[in-house]
Every structure is written in structure tokens, then in C-alpha cells.
Amino acid sequence: MARNLDTALLRAFVAVAETGGMTAAAGVLNLTQAAVSQQIKRLEESFGGLLFERERRGLALTAQGERLLGLAKRLLAMNDQIWAEMTAPVETGEIRLGFPYDLVPGYAAPVLKRFARCCPRVRVRLFSHASREIREAVERGEIDLGIVEEVATEPHGETLMVDRLVWVGARGGDAWLQRPVPISIGSETCSIRPPTLAALRAADVDWRPVVEIANVDALNATVQSDLGVTTMLASAVPSNLEILPPDCGLPPVPPLSVSLYQRRDHGMRAVDDLARIIRETFCRRPSAAAVAA
């Protein structure tokens, strides 16, 4: 049969353990010494053993008391967190969230759905831009949270995942066999563009541009039509395209970090809640941990 612990008794126990005596604990708890003593006695009766033993300098924990102390502190911390969360006033307002174009299809919906349940009265304005533009907007205070693809996370950012860059083509297509290789690639602000072009130059692969554009849908359409190939984060490859094999003749491209940046003076608890949900959503994706080709 399930038994429920009385947190008031645990709080008294922790106070006595930390202060070393009933009198000092009574002052911390704003109770009488007799009340604290009675609470400790009730707790000892519940567990069927002594929690303290008297020494010359005061009370000391028994072996059973030592076992209980860490557990009691964790339970009280969880109790206090739940109380604070459930009694806090419901926040309202608006959060501005920056999302790279290519990550919106796979990640935005689960993030926004979970956040809507967590903070139903807080609106989220989604800004879909290139990573560099998102970083700059966060630094200017125009965006509260920004997800950014980059070679390495900066010190004031947080790495959400490191994902490999893969060559992608049309299902059953043969554009990757052509020479020069037809490449569909993002515009100058695209984070994937520099490492892709650097890999092609280092491998001395002859290529020609099919399209250079910031619109991911248009770029993907050229790849789906087998007009060219492109590079993408493995976790962002849509189902209508396929990852080309390692022996396709195209050079490996270094992985990218997906980072989270937060405006320092946002002043909203809901921003921290959204950051937590983003963090958990990215960590749950199985491909996020696969950085080896």
C-alpha cells in the first residue's frame, strides 16, 4: 500500500540536521522546540528507527538519518518547485523566436505545440531567416530566442546538437554523376554554403551552380527535379529526397552545430520555458547524435 510522506516532518528533520539542534531548528522554522521535537519523533516512528543521536556538541545523524537527509532535501526541492510553478501568475505577452529555414519543417511544430500547452496565453512570433540574420537579430534585441546553424557555438550560446552535413539528391536521380556537378546552394547568408564550397574546393571537384537562393522550398524543388544536388543537415532531409552514399564522388563536409542564443534582458519566465522545450525537442531527435558519416 502506498504511503505518503509529510513534508512538514521532513522540513523539520532537515532543519535539525543542518542546525545541529532542536532549539536552533525551531528558530528557523518559527516553531517551538517542543513542536520540532514532536515532529522528529513522529518521523522516527514512521521509519521505525532513530534519526539522531545525542553527542556532547549536540545532535548528530544516525546511519538511518544520513540515508534520509539527501533524499529529504531532493523531495523538498521538488515540492517547492512544484508549488512555485503551480502558484505563479499565468504569464501573458509575446516571444519572438528565430528559426533557420531548413529546420522549420522538422522542429518548429513540436516546439510550438508543447509551448502552447505550457504557456497558453503567451504568443510566439516565428521569424524564419538565415542563421547569420538570426544571430544579429538576437544581438540587437529584436529576437528573444534564436536557433542558429554554425561551425561552432560561440561562448554565449548553447549547443543544442551537432549534426552531420550530407549530400542530398532526388530519389533515383543521377544529377550527382554529372561533371561539372550541378549544385543547388543557399545564398551568401546561408551557414551551410561556406563549408560546402570549401569542401568542393579542397577536393578539386568541378561544379556549377543551379540556383543560389535563400528560399529552401525553391532550392529543394530543384533537387527533387534532379536538376542538382545540395548539402543539408542529416536531421533536416525531407522524405522526398535521399542522402547520397559516401562513394558518390562528392567530398565529405564537416558537421555543423545547431546553437541556441537568448536575449539576456528578456525578463520573461516564459522565455526560459520555451528555451527548455527547444532544448528537449532537439535532444530527442535520434539523428542529432549521429555526427559520423
Describe the model:
With 293 residues, the chain is an alpha/beta fold. Helix content is 41%, strand content 24%. It is built from 9 helices and 11 strands. The strands form 3 sheets. Strands 3, 4, 5, 6, 9, 10 and 11 form a 7-stranded mixed beta sheet that branches. Helix 7 links the parallel strand 7 and strand 8. The longest helix has 25 residues. The chain is elongated, with a radius of gyration of 28 Å. The C terminus is likely disordered.
What is the global morphology? elongated
> On the 0-100 scale, what is the average pLDDT?
92
Note the run of SSEs as H and E: HHHEEHEHEHEEEHEHEEEH
Gyration radius, to the nearest Å? Answer: 28 Å
Number of separate helices: 9
Q: Give unreliable regions as ranges.
A: 286-293
| Helix content range | 40-55%
Structural class: alpha/beta
Largest sheet: 7 strands, mixed
Number-wise, the strands total: 11
Give the oligomer, counting copies of the same chain as homo and different chains as hetero.
single chain
Task: Assess the beta-strand content as a share of residues.
Answer: 15-25%
Separation of termini? 52 Å
SSE layout and pairing:
Elements: H1 7-19, H2 22-29, H3 33-47, E1 52-55, E2 58-61, H4 63-87, E3 93-100, H5 104-118, E4 122-129, H6 131-139, E5 145-150, E6 158-170, E7 181-185, H7 193-202, E8 207-212, H8 216-224, E9 230-233, E10 241-243, E11 253-262, H9 269-284
Parallel strand pairs: 3-4, 3-5, 7-8
Antiparallel strand pairs: 1-2, 5-11, 6-9, 6-10, 6-11
